TrEMBL record:
Residues 209-220 have a biased composition (Low complexity). It comes from Macrosiphum euphorbiae (potato aphid). It comes from the Eukaryota. Residues 195-220 are annotated as: Disordered. Residues 195-208 have a biased composition (Basic and acidic residues). This is Uncharacterized protein.
Length: 350
């Protein structure tokens, strides 16, 4: 009993009848050999073939069958004559000789297409030589073509050489791609490290600038304070209206009445008008003297607050820096020691 195995191809009528029939014929031959059907009687083989042909194939067989005894070989030959039209060798030659390897096309793909095309050319025993020639003429890589033209080699050596060149080129590209990938990774890492280093440098620079700014602000403040004191000391005058030293336009006698001349804006002790003594008013004068002395004593006490002569009584020590002497104030209660910009320039300190 003949059974159609699962997935067994049956003959179907399609647009590509030529290709479909060739595949069907090849599978029938394989199946008959695998199941040893080819060892059975001829009528059994024919029945098995008709069964495997399917509905479309059986209809075609009934149309083209010939009178007389038939075998598997005659049935397949009749189907082949019907399905495969006669070929035009000129067109087949044209298609074969115009087949060349395209850019990016693998050599094995091109070689397979050439072998298919040459089957319809009927070159006979010269088929391998013509196929070799077409491979050399149609190879895309010109360096490979030049190499093949140096010696007249056989088809199998030409095919082997072309395959080895293609594999070598593929390996070379793989190595280049690998190096580029490693290079890309290193570039990313180096870029990240550079960015991180730049950020650290930027932070350190900002911190340094901030410290320099704070130090500059502190120096400027100290300089202004010292300059203010120095200017205040330099602006001290020996006043001829009160008889003491004070800052310009800060006279304690301003608006006061002189007990000697009854004038304003001066004290009696420095009054330029000659004192007039009157015995009649001796007691009054004595009282005025007491008041004047008390006023001057009070004024002297007030003036002592404004005097800056205490600077000369400060504890100081002279040191030598960079070959230049400078006077330092000794202050045990100070938390920080500063130098003015003027002193730094004098000492040559940047």
């Amino acid at each position: 009993m003949v059974t159609r195995r699962k997935g067994q191809r049956t003959y179907t009528s399609t647009a590509n009848t030529n290709k479909n029939f060739k595949m069907f014929k090849q599978e029938i031959e394989i199946y008959f050999k695998a199941t040893e059907t080819n060892k059975k009687d001829s009528d059994v083989q024919v029945a098995c073939l008709l069964n495997l042909m399917g509905h479309d194939g059986l209809k075609l067989y009934n149309t083209i069958k010939k009178v007389g005894e038939e075998s598997v070989g005659t049935i397949l030959k009749s189907l082949e004559e019907y399905c495969i039209p006669k070929t035009n060798e000129t067109i087949e030659h044209f298609n074969f000789f115009n087949k060349k390897q395209h850019d990016g096309e693998q050599f094995d793909v091109c070689y397979t297409d050439l072998k298919k095309l040459i089957k319809g050319c009927n070159f006979g025993e010269a088929e391998n030589k013509i196929l070799r020639t077409q491979i050399v003429l149609g190879i895309f890589d010109k360096e490979t073509q030049t190499r093949l033209l140096r010696n007249d080699v056989a088809l199998n050596k030409v095919v082997s050489y072309c395959q080895s060149v293609e594999r070598a080129e593929s390996n070379r590209r793989m190595l280049i791609t690998g190096h580029e990938s490693d290079k890309t990774v290193h570039e990313v890492v180096n870029k990240y490290r550079t960015k991180e280093q730049n950020q650290n440098k930027s932070w350190k620079k900002d911190e340094s600038n901030q410290n320099q700014y704070n130090s500059s602000q502190t120096n400027q403040l100290n300089y202004r304070q010292m300059s203010k004191k120095r200017n205040s000391f330099n602006n001290m005058i020996n006043c001829n209206r009160c008889g003491s030293n004070h800052v310009y336009k800060n006279c304690p006698a301003y608006g006061k009445c002189c007990k000697n001349c009854n004038g304003y804006h001066n004290f009696a002790k420095v009054c330029k008008k000659k004192k007039q003594y009157d015995n009649k008013y001796e007691m009054k004068k004595a009282q005025e003297i007491k008041i004047e002395n008390r006023e001057e004593h009070d004024t002297f006490t007030v003036e002592s607050v404004h005097k800056l002569w205490s600077i000369k009584n400060e504890w100081c020590k002279t040191f030598e820096i960079n070959g230049k002497k400078i006077n330092f104030k000794l202050d045990s209660g100070a938390e920080i020691n500063t130098l003015s910009e003027e002193d730094c320039n004098y000492l040559g300190i940047q």
